[in-house]
């Protein structure tokens, strides 16, 4: 069911992302860079069912490889060391990151040909929208 995510997605809009980065504890300088970055998101799947998710921008490239429902250690773009698990719920990829007694949820779904990423930390929600590259 992850097939619809496979491919490269280009970010076209980002709402409330600065507030989200503040909520997860990202410092000012890193937020400035994070707000300017317009990352491409690429998903691929290997023969073993391992999903690769790569975020590429002019500032930073991060890549994580994981299997659904299996916890793994992730170093995020802002250098948090998290215990992360990704599940597939109602057609959405739900990524839960836990660190230092905190947790955040990133939900990604494909709707009307767009990939919508909803980042939630407490009451703060950011929404980033991507379109598929040809």
Automatic annotation (TrEMBL):
Pfam families attached to this UniProt entry: Lipocalin (PF00061)
Domain of life of the source: Eukaryota
Residues in Cytosolic fatty-acid binding proteins domain copies: 7-24
Keywords: Transport
One term of GO molecular function: lipid binding
Family: Belongs to the calycin superfamily. Fatty-acid binding protein (FABP) family.
PANTHER family, A to Z: FATTY ACID BINDING PROTEIN
Name of protein: Cytosolic fatty-acid binding proteins domain-containing protein
Species assigned in the record: Albula goreensis
